[in-house]
UniProtKB/TrEMBL annotation:
Residues 494-531, 907-945 form the EGF-like domain. Residues 1-148 form the F5/8 type C domain. PANTHER family: CONTACTIN-ASSOCIATED PROTEIN-LIKE 4, PIKACHURIN-LIKE PROTEIN. Residues 530-582 form the Fibrinogen C-terminal domain. GO terms for cellular component: membrane. Residues 154-331, 337-492, 741-906, 957-1137 form the Laminin G domain. Keywords: Disulfide bond, EGF-like domain, Membrane, Repeat, Signal, Transmembrane, Transmembrane helix. This is Contactin-associated protein-like 4. InterPro entries: ConA-like_dom_sf (IPR013320), EGF (IPR000742), FA58C (IPR000421), Fibrinogen-like_C (IPR036056), Fibrinogen_a/b/g_C_dom (IPR002181), Galactose-bd-like_sf (IPR008979), Laminin_G (IPR001791), Neurexin-related_CASP (IPR050372). The gene is LOC100700197. It is found in: Membrane. Pfam families: EGF, F5_F8_type_C, Laminin_G_2.
Length: 1188
């Protein structure tokens, strides 16, 4: 393509400009924007390879551009790209803040569309590249640019002795805050940019390493290896200007590269450190006149070097005595024309040449990419009808064979030299540093056909040579050499999508040419950007997921910056406790040192400071035991009023506290002083009585502002006869103020409003809801164009919708069951620069990918509406609970207290959590949450899931007696037969578990006052028979039940209704049989002889979760023996022997046997064995005795 030139004034305050164009069709090129003007630019061919270039004459601060279509035509642009350059080469595409490259154009030929640049561009040259135009016309343009002059002071550094040194004497530029700022550009990826040295050789250096800027600390000769404090920026070797600011105040330092800042905490000695010398381009020591040759000097340009506002380059120009060095006060830039291969369809085709040496070919180039694979070049072998392929695979360079050069997809420039001479192929990577490979094919290699480069490669290439001659890529651009498609010529458009990294919480970023990926392994977070925590925020939340006591990671701020912490969650009580340990929770004897008058101890907690404070703040209640055991060792009170001992508690190192456990802050008392029961009423602590007998002052510290205990100082420990011990227990907290925070919306027009939600790059929203309505908006926040919304769109669907400037996007989750069932459902939505996701309950996550180069800043400015919208339409009726935005809980209850139509709190949790109550436990509603009532269950624990078990020996028994009416108990024999018949039990539900090696054994015996009984036993011989009185016989075949006296855990369930009985034995199975009728007997108070003989053997084993109708006799004996009608004889030991995981502790015990038994009652099955014998004596509606 040819070029033409035209000159005009851009604006009254700008210099003359010159235009260069790819081609022209009409006579007038460029005119000022004017509805009355004529002409404009329209190229010969309307395609995406056309461009318009403006030379402003000198570097200029460009603030805006405006476009207009060609006058009186149908020719105008609808979108375009802007490129900027200082030299007319090495163009850089202007991108908006959200990485959007294209600009909106015109909709007709007459209107003017002006675009103000978000960040002004400083350049001499501007190039406009059409992307789209009116489909009914051609490319047509009138252009105007806006800006102002730009001045700067520049030096050029070429390595070696090319550097500047500034010696800073005390003067006006000394301030409490040191600030150094500059701009630099370079083509090399390593070199010393700036070196600042202070006292004793301590120095800070800014060094370029592999295209990244490193902040290094050198501490004189004592530390030869520098300490890396920060690493920022990427691809800084692109020969474009980069802005660097270094700010230091005391031990705090900020490093800014372009728009990204990293904060660094310097060692403490830097609080008094001051810069004495600055060196530019090399390291110069204060004690040496020569630069450090061990480091790489900078090759490039420095602009506007300022130290505390003073222009140091200007001082060098004026030959200031404090400045020495050898530099050029201009920027000499080498011309390097690069190519960008933007996609799989990009290629460059060059004509083949006859080798300068017969039968040979030589190709060289440099490339950089993020992709692991791609074809670099190929050419044909016409004589052999073959091809040669040079390509990347797994980030290694290959020519049909593997060669060296690993990790070539690191974004750095890599050189490749390919030579074929005299039947020998040679490939060299990075001048041999990356590897050399040789091959010797049996045929000559020439390039008589076309040379094809990069047909599937995405990346940049430069310094292309063929037969050791450079390829003129500008001629390629002008279509005078070779052919190409979808190339960006004279620029390298590589972008580092990992700098700055969008991977949060320590996620590791990797990338290809078009996308980045976050590896969230071992971070405790998940999602496309490692944003959302995989852990719950409290022990309370783990409990309501159905977990039991154990160690858990909790993340108190969810997706916030605080890392997860490992805690112990104690869920054995009604209250769920979070336990945070420190390094010494045991009772510790004080061992005084002779030369020390006080004993001081510091407590280190297992969690970090910010984790600890956040856990305390989030909990409803925290406590910590503090106890002092003393013998002639006073604690607090002295004659002059100052305490002997104190402790430090609260945030940071803690504040001095002079009260003890159980008392109030500032009281200088112990618990006994508050209660008035100290051993000496003249003192407020037991230990202050100074007695020879051991005593103690103990209690709980419950004021959260003074927790945790950090240190303890004990003073009265050196006197003769003084002895003392202390204990500081673990920090225990319960309650989660966030988990149950809820609001009830009783009208569709009601809502809560909060300040604007700020989630520009990452936003996660989670909450629980329950409703009987079929639709409603949970949350909405609007901007000028952007918005974010979550709503129940139907009774089975939740929708997460938003717009960040790319048009509305929706993520939907469909439920197979109705969501308006008045049960709690959990919603988790996340939106980041990569994708949006929505999860409902435990359904699969739905995702929606974000555009690769689209807008990604969410810009909102209105109030955040909860439970409704600003229009008061489509409001939500129901409850919303535990609403969190980016890990921060919104206090719905407090806002609901002052908002009409919204009520704080939301009862009715058993409908959702009642299933957590197991084994006949009953769910009971509470103001915040629920509780499992285990009074009717044989189990205990927070969810009635803990087996209540006991170990029995032959002499152990438990008797449980039902209270009988007074008249009945006064004279049992006087009961008429009618009462007898009415009070006979018609049904029983009995269950128990056991473990034993004893056979035979009596497991259960139930007897009424009316001469009826039921017995369950393990029979040694499997005989069947009928007993005296009324014996209920459960006829189980011997072959159908295996031996149960095997030390394993077995469970028996017996259900009787009139004459039908079912027996279930686990393992192995269930069998149902009919009740055997009882024969007539004579009334007798004596026990059946066979059963009596069996009972006399006692029982050795374990019995667990014994349940008779609504009574749990074993649980009553173990847990409520003082309030239950039980009598315990012999040793009864609670154990976990009823747990399925428990091993058999009775395998070595001897098994007693019955011998010479004839007739009588026996339970004809392999039996059920446990560590106890239960004797249940029951009388229907009258009284029951249970013997164990």
């Amino acid at each position: 393509a040819h070029s033409e030139r035209s000159s005009n004034a851009i604006h009254s305050f700008l210099l003359t400009r010159t235009y260069f164009i790819s081609s022209n069709l009409h006579g007038h090129l460029i005119h000022h924007l004017s509805t009355n003007g004529a002409g404009g630019w329209s190229p010969l061919i309307s395609d995406k390879y056309q461009w318009l270039e403006v030379d402003l004459g000198e570097r200029t601060k460009i603030t805006a551009v405006a476009t207009q279509g060609r006058y009186g035509s149908s020719d105008w642009l609808t979108s375009y790209l802007l490129m900027f350059s200082d030299t007319g080469h090495n163009w850089k595409q202007y991108r908006q803040e959200d990485s959007i490259g294209s600009f909106p154009g015109n909709s007709n030929a007459d209107s003017v569309v002006q675009y103000k640049l978000q960040q002004p561009a400083i350049a001499r040259f501007l190039r406009l590249i059409p992307l789209d135009w009116n489909p009914s016309g051609r490319i047509g343009l009138r252009l105007e640019t806006y800006g102002c002059p730009y001045t700067s002071d520049v030096v050029s550094l070429n390595g070696g002795s090319s550097s500047l040194v500034y010696r800073l004497s005390p003067g006006p530029w000394r301030t409490s805050k040191e600030v150094v700022s500059l701009k630099f550009k370079t083509l090399r990826n390593s070199g010393i940019l700036l070196h600042a040295e202070g006292q004793q050789g301590v120095s800070l250096s800014l060094e370029l390493e592999r295209g990244k800027l490193q902040l290094l600390l050198r501490q004189g000769k004592t530390s030869p290896e520098p300490l890396r404090l920060a690493s920022l920026g990427s691809l800084l070797d692109d020969q474009h200007w980069h802005h660097v600011v270094l700010e230091q105040k005391n031990a705090h330092l900020n490093l800014t590269v372009d728009k990204n800042t990293e904060r660094v905490q310097l060692p403490a000695e830097f609080s008094r450190w001051a810069i004495e010398q600055l060196s530019l381009g090399a390291i110069h020591s204060l004690r040496s006149q020569k630069p450090d040759t061990s480091s790489k000097d900078l090759h490039g340009c420095i602009e506007n070097l300022l130290y505390n506002g003073f222009n140091l380059i200007e001082l060098a120009k004026n030959s200031d005595h404090q400045v020495t060095g050898n530099v050029t006060f201009s920027c000499a830039e080498p011309v390097s024309v690069a190519l960008t291969f933007t996609g799989p369809q990009s290629f460059l085709q060059l004509p083949g040449t006859t080798a300068s040496s017969p039968g040979g070919v030589s190709v060289g180039f440099q490339f950089r990419t993020w992709n692991k694979g791609g074809l670099l070049f190929t050419f044909s072998l016409p004589q052999q009808e073959g091809m040669v392929w040079l390509y990347l695979s797994d980030a290694r360079l290959r020519l049909m064979i593997h060669i060296s050069g690993a990790a070539l997809n690191d974004g750095q420039w890599h050189s490749v030299d390919f030579t074929a001479r005299r039947g020998r192929l040679t490939i060299s990577v990075d001048k041999g540093e990356g590897g050399i490979a040789h091959a010797a094919p049996s045929f000559p290699v020439t390039t008589e056909s076309q040379l094809n480069l990069f047909e599937t490669f995405q990346g940049c290439m430069r310094l292309l040579t063929v037969e050791n001659q450079p390829v003129d890529l500008i001629k390629v651009q002008q279509r005078l050499l070779g052919n190409y498609s979808q190339l960006q010529i004279d620029m390298c458009g590589i972008i580092d999508r990992c700098s700055p990294s969008h991977c949060e919480h320590g996620g590791r970023c990797s990338q290809s040419w078009t996308v980045f990926h976050c590896n969230c392994s071992d971070t405790g977070y998940s999602g496309a950007t490692c944003h959302s925590s995989v852990y719950e925020q409290s022990c309370e939340a783990y409990k309501h997921n159905g977990n039991t006591s154990g160690h858990f990671y909790i993340d108190v701020d969810g997706s916030g910056p605080i890392k997860p912490q490992l805690v112990y969650c104690n869920m054995t009580e009604e209250t769920t406790w979070m336990v945070l340990l420190h390094n010494n929770t045991e009772l510790t004897r004080v061992r005084p040192s002779p030369a020390v008058s006080q004993h001081s101890v510091h407590f280190d907690y297992s969690t970090q400071e910010e984790q600890l404070l956040a856990a305390i703040s989030q909990s409803e209640h925290c406590e910590q035991e503090l106890s002092y055991h003393c013998r002639k060792s006073r604690l607090l009170n002295t004659l002059e009023g100052s305490p002997f001992s104190w402790w430090l508690g609260g945030p940071g190192q803690g504040r001095v506290q002079t009260y003890w456990g159980g008392a109030h802050p500032g009281s200088q008392q112990c618990a006994c002083g508050l209660q008035g029961d100290c051993v000496d009423l003249q003192h407020y602590c037991n230990c202050d009585a100074d007695r020879l007998e051991w005593t103690e002052d103990s209690g709980l510290l419950t004021h959260k502002d003074t927790l945790p205990v950090r240190s303890l100082v004990l003073g009265d420990i050196q006197r003769p006869g003084s002895e003392a011990a202390y204990r500081v227990g673990p920090l225990r907290c319960h309650g989660d103020k966030n988990f149950w925070n809820a609001a009830f919306f009783d009208k569709e027009t009601s809502y809560l409003h909060f300040p604007t939600f700020h989630g520009e790059l990452s936003a996660d929203i989670s909450f629980l809801f329950k409703t009987t309505g079929s639709s409603g908006v949970f949350l909405e926040n609007l901007g000028i164009k952007d918005f974010i919304r979550i709503e129940l769109s139907s009774s089975t669907q939740v929708v997460f919708s938003f717009d960040v400037g790319n048009g509305p996007l929706e993520v939907r989750v469909e439920s197979s069951v109705p969501l308006n069932d008045n049960r709690w459902h959990r919603v988790r939505a996340e939106r980041n620069v990569k994708e949006a996701s929505l999860r409902l309950d435990e359904l699969p996550v739905a995702t929606q990918e974000a555009p690769t180069d689209g807008h990604f800043h969410l810009q909102l400015n209105s109030q955040l509406f909860i439970g409704g919208t600003a229009s008061r339409q489509k409001g939500f009726r129901g409850c919303i609970r535990s609403l969190q935005l980016n890990g921060v809980t919104l206090d719905l209850e407090e806002r609901a207290k002052i908002t009409p139509g919204v009520q704080p709190g939301c009862p009715g949790h058993c409908s959702s959590y009642g299933s957590l109550c197991q084994n006949h436990g009953r769910c009971v509603e509470r103001a915040s949450g629920f509780q499992c009532d285990c009074s009717l269950s044989a189990y205990a624990g927070v969810f009635c899931q803990t087996e209540v078990s006991a170990s029995f020996k032959p002499g152990t028994s438990v008797s449980y007696t039902f209270k009988e009416p007074y008249e009945l108990s006064r004279n049992r024999s006087a009961l008429p037969s009618s009462i007898y018949s009415e009070m006979t039990l018609r049904a029983e539900n009995i269950s128990l578990s056991f473990r034993t090696n004893q056979s035979p054994a009596l497991l259960l015996y139930v007897s009424s006052y009316y001469r009826e009984y039921l017995a369950v036993l393990i029979s040694k011989h499997g005989k069947r028979g009928t007993g005296l009185l009324c014996l209920f016989l459960f006829s189980l075949l011997r072959s159908s039940v295996r031996n149960v006296a095997n030390g394993q855990l077995h469970t028996v369930t017996i259900k009787r209704l009139t004459d039908s009985v079912s027996v279930q034995v686990k393992p192995p199975h269930q069998q149902v049989c009919k009740l055997v009728k009882c024969k007539e007997i004579q009334h007798s108070d004596d026990l059946d002889p066979d059963l009596a003989k069996l009972a006399s053997l006692g029982f050795t084993g374990c019995l667990s979760v014994v349940h008779f109708n609504t009574i749990s006799p074993l649980k009553a004996a173990l847990r409520h023996s003082d309030t239950s009608p039980v009598i315990i004889t012999g040793p009864l030991v609670q154990s976990n022997c009823g747990s399925a995981a428990s091993t058999n502790p009775y395998a070595a015990e001897n098994t007693p046997h019955l011998s010479g038994k004839k007739g009588g009652a026996s339970f004809a099955s392999s039996g059920i064995c446990k560590e106890a014998v239960y004797e249940f004596i029951c009388c229907c509606k009258v009284g029951v005795y249970i013997y164990i």
